[in-house]
Design brief:
Structural class: alpha/beta
Number of strands: 7
Largest sheet: 7 strands, parallel
Strand content: 5-15%
Oligomer: single chain
CATH architecture of the largest domain: 3-Layer(aba) Sandwich
Shape: globular
Distance between the termini: 47 Å
Order of helices and strands: EHEHHEHEEHEHEHHHH
Radius of gyration: 20 Å
């Protein structure tokens, strides 16, 4: 059976701090087989090492076009949504969808939506903070509690996307109303600043409640206009609490849920 290339819903493949040039080369080979062309590397090893070229085989041109970023925030900035790949869930990571469910995440988004698949370090994966930067999380179900080689994981996700080849996305709609992730992160930065000032966040573990609010708002899929509305809300709240003296004494933050 032959599957079509995944364009026009071709994702950016984002590798966070890959340690092996050979793995980067093999990822390029996997991408080339499915028509993916946007490779983004976050603080990588020497990605143009001869070993990377060796394992890229016929995809060496793709390797040469890879873009390098200093951190994951920068690599995600122009995307509309992103999927963090992880082996585990949890309070800070949410409930990862299986790899086969990733195409369904695109349902209802217009053609032209820019999205990325984010893969972590070969030995340690993604941190909880890095997973939180993405709009979704996903895992590859395996028979044992192990992990796949980096290129193998990339191949699995590209294969799953190839089986729909854009069928989940809506033609004729405009993607310009979708907020980019740098716009969403700017809103989250305002939100967390206000919540910290009013004592809503636990100073010892502020990421718990802020992470829950992030997941809630991302599930709502706000438009660019709604993100602008929320930014105005947080800006007005920040101004109005200028003389705020902190959370009232005796108030306890419940983080049991």
């Amino acid at each position: 059976m032959v599957f079509s290339p995944i364009a026009p819903q071709s994702p950016a493949i984002i590798l966070v701090e890959p340690r092996s040039p050979g793995n980067i080369g093999m990822v390029c080979r996997a991408m080339a087989n499915f028509g993916a062309t946007d490779l983004r590397l976050v603080n990588p090893c020497q990605h143009l090492h001869p070993e990377a070229h060796k394992f890229a085989v016929f995809a060496q041109e793709l390797l040469g076009r890879a873009r390098v970023y200093p951190d994951l925030t920068a690599a995600l900035a122009d995307l509309h949504l992103s999927v963090a790949t992880t082996r585990r869930g949890g309070r800070l990571r949410g409930d990862p969808v299986p790899a086969a469910g990733v195409p369904a995440l695109l349902r209802g988004f217009p053609l032209g939506t820019r999205f990325g698949l984010v893969f972590g370090r070969e030995d340690a994966g993604l941190t909880s903070a890095e997973v939180a930067l993405c709009t979704h999380a996903s895992a590859i179900p395996t028979a044992v509690d192990g992990s796949l080689n980096l290129a193998q994981a990339v191949l699995v996700y590209l294969y799953e996307l190839s089986r729909t080849a854009g069928a989940e996305m809506i033609e004729g709609q405009n993607s310009r109303e979708l907020p980019t992730q740098d716009e969403v992160e700017a809103m989250f930065g305002q939100m967390e600043g206000v919540l910290e000032r009013i004592g809503f966040l636990n100073s010892a573990r502020p990421q718990v409640r802020s992470g829950q609010l992030r997941q809630l708002l991302l599930r709502a899929r706000p438009s660019r206009g709604e993100i602008s509305l929320l930014r105005g809300l947080w800006d007005q709240l920040a101004w109005s609490i200028n003389d705020w003296r902190g959370r009232r004494r005796g108030t306890k933050i419940d983080e049991s849920h």
